[in-house]
Amino acid sequence: MSAVDEILASLPIDQLAASLGESPAAVEQAAYAALPALLGGLEANAQDPAGEASLAQAVSQHDAGLASGTVDLSRVDVADGQKITRHIFGAQEDQVVHQLGGVGGSSGLVGKLLPILAPIVLSYLAKQMQSQQGDGGGGVLGGILSQILQGAAQGAGGRSSAAPDMGSILGDLLGGLLGGGRR
């Protein structure tokens, strides 16, 4: 199972959809587009040693338990999520939301979903770092992100043909909006 699928499986989609006033299918599609973008943006930031150190510090401040089992949405700090997405995408945040809205439903939904997903993604990374018993130094976090993105770019095995092409999304976002990234 890819990291994107693992995170999606931990989301209470029906509850999230109800809180956003959207259909579960639309929320799932938007989340499936937004998660690789968040992970790709984090990986782009981790390419620089100072960026990786800063990211490792941010990851260490997130409870790995949030991403274990089904996510308790009441524990998600949306204000923190807004700061995370601003840091990941910088001045390109609106462009990223717009581009993701084209493949993930609507820009409005993606814009509401990113700050909810961002703390969950950092908690997921905290869980991955704990399982590798790394401290984020020496490229551990960058390596984890690279592995996650390789799985996302290859696509999820069980996704329908209507699911967005993650390789294409990652290439477009990382190449065009995030200054090059890996592609």
Give a nutshell description of this structure:
The protein is mainly α. Helix content is 68%, strand content 0%.
Output the keywords.
single chain, 183 residues, mainly alpha, 68% helix, globular, disordered C terminus
Tell me the count of domains: 1
Share of β-strand residues: under 5%
Q: Name the poorly predicted regions.
A: 156-164, 179-183
Name the overall outline. globular
Average pLDDT across residues? 80
Tell me the distance between the termini: 23 Å
- What would you call the structural class? mainly alpha
Radius of gyration: 15 Å
- Biggest sheet character: none
Q: What series of H and E elements makes up the topology?
A: HHHHHHHHH
Helical proportion, percent range: 55-70%
Total of helices: 9
Quaternary organisation of the protein chains: single chain
How many distinct beta strands?
0
Write the layout of secondary structure elements.
Blueprint: H1 3-10, H2 13-20, H3 24-46, H4 49-60, H5 78-89, H6 93-103, H7 107-131, H8 140-153, H9 166-177
Protein described:
The structure is a single chain. The radius of gyration is 15 Å and the shape is globular. 68% of the residues lie in helices and 0% in strands. The chain has one domain. By secondary structure, the chain is an all-alpha fold. The chain is built from 9 helices and no strands.
